## 1
Amino acid sequence: MRIRRLFPFRSFRRGNGRGGNAMVEFSLVFITFLTMVVAMFEFVWVLFLRSTLHNAVREGVRYAITANPGQNGLDPAIKLAMKDASGGILTQAELDAHVRVEFFDPTCANGATCPAGGAGSAAAAPAEAGSVVKVSIECYDVSPITNLVRPMNPSGTGVSPFSLTVSASDKVEPFPGAPPSRGALAAPTACP
């Protein structure tokens, strides 16, 4: 009996070689597709964090222009409102390190260079009615999950973080009675 009758399919030696080509093409397309999915996830993660930080800053400004500061002062109350609005992303240590609250005089001809109440700096200016409050989160580091988007640190110890800065401002409404005390003022660390 002939072998061809037992095995009616074609011999592997006589194949056209398409099976190997399909495997190579699949691997190249899959690697490219996986890279695009991971890069898209990285981009969405950074965008989500920026949006959340911007929402926290807006809530801090809203609190600064309308709310009663409580016993500890206005700045700690603003930071607490920001922490509540951040959805658990901001810790107290990060708030102390990255948040800046400043009050400016809107009638000044030089604009944003004039602190409210004639203070030496906008970070130490009083919270007067009619002044402009600016709340910002400066140099908040966001570490990417992979190094597809950002290169490794020069020391080779990890991925270089993104540095986000967001801010919002508004005009302070008149408070009933005297302007509130700012409380403990802490300047954030400078961006590297």
## 2
Amino acid sequence: MQESTFNPFTQDQLLLGIKSNEPKVLKWLYHSQYPKIEKYVMANNGDEDQAKDLFQEAFIALWNNVKSDKLRPENGTAVTGYLYQIAKNKWLDYLRSSRYKNTTGLQTHHDKSEEEDYNLEANQSNVEEEFKKLGENCREILKRFYFLKESMETIAKAFNWTEATARNNKYRCIQRLKEKVNTLKN
């Protein structure tokens, strides 16, 4: 097994190591987790510098959450998975931001063919139809997150869940919706 994937620490040791700024723990976390996050960013329209910046932001967020006891072993959340999810969410936020959108080329209506317009409308219709078929909780989570722009903390409180549970459920719901829409396309 490669050294970067082997975890020599328990979740408790990782959390205590982060809390006490233990160099071995911090170094292991950085070296084992950065490649995964860099690969994700590079595969999603990013570059190496953006991956480094994103990892630093995610690492600091993890460190702050551990220090303030927002992430505890009894939550059942793996530290490495939590770090990856923070990075992923931050990258998705960046991709949705105006800062990113302003750097990508815009395609005007005149550049698109009528067939592309039809496909876009058909896809939107499919998404709406499949959204209606999701369970009540999934519809509510996605509506609150994507349309009402509520934080995961607010959503978690509304359902009486932990933030990690809310995040996991939102992810599962959006994946379910994507799978249903993709099935219709094929």
## 3
Amino acid sequence: MAEKSFADALNEQIANEFAASQQYVGMAVYYDAETLPRLAHFFYRQALEEREHAMMMVQYLLDVSEEVHIPDIKAQETSYSDGMTPVKKALEQEKRVGEEIFALFELAREVKDYRAEQFMQWFVKEQVEEVALMSDLLNVVERSKDNLLLAEDYIARESPGEGGGDPTAPPAAGSGG
């Protein structure tokens, strides 16, 4: 039998998603201060995406009549030793979130919560994309570590992570959907 309910575990993940959003804001602030506007924009956009994930989870809990817990906000780092460190940390974070998402999926399956399992399928797919996105960005930043303007050019040219909205995404609380 599971140690905790899916709703409790999902509430923990909501806190993790909001923390990831805040961490990405901190990274964006660092790049903004370094006058690297495209890297800053990339991370500001990632912050919004993580917040959106949290709000999708909030909406799911509301839809299934479970209690929602909104976490406290913790201060985040806004300065780094070099321009590669934020991207390295972002990749580590995405890998960790992936493991958290997989654990939620497994918990839903273990407790035979088929609604929750179906809900989590989109997040499993999303985490594959997020890890690939950060891995690619880290490759570019590592190759251009002596001149991050090359990474800026890459972002301007390729627009990584700027795909259109996913019509299969769960609705987010407050989105009217």
## 4
Amino acid sequence: MKYLTHAAFAALLTTTSAFAHDYKAGNLSIVHPMAFETAQSANVAGGYMTIENSGETTDRLLEVRVPNIRRVELHLSETDANGVARMTKQDGIEIPAGETVTLQPGGLHMMFMGLNGDPFEEGEKIDATLVFESAGEVDVVFNVEARSAADHGTAEHSGH
């Protein structure tokens, strides 16, 4: 398509701005914090984002704080040679100098624990504070997004 109508262009801008959001803290860029909607009965949900370190020293994500959520843990999911998936709690996530670390389903991610009957719903905004070793505290917002059919196969512990 060569030309966009005003309505199509406005829709494109709205869609882009709804999903793309990032934050800066020193040499770190936190790109698109998000979580998927959860089932009504879910007690946990996964959190994802990309963290870029443009600096010359490694930083470390130590903690994530979310009001009204009992606990948030940093996790790593791995699948062994036999196809058995294991998830291990991490004491922190290193963000090496000059590198990008992606928190995503099936790898490094965070777990929002203790939803207790208050599921994440599409369009919801989850206020959080990321705590880094060097960059300090960064307030971010996790957008809750719909899960596509392709995402259902990579659900961490979202109750799907």
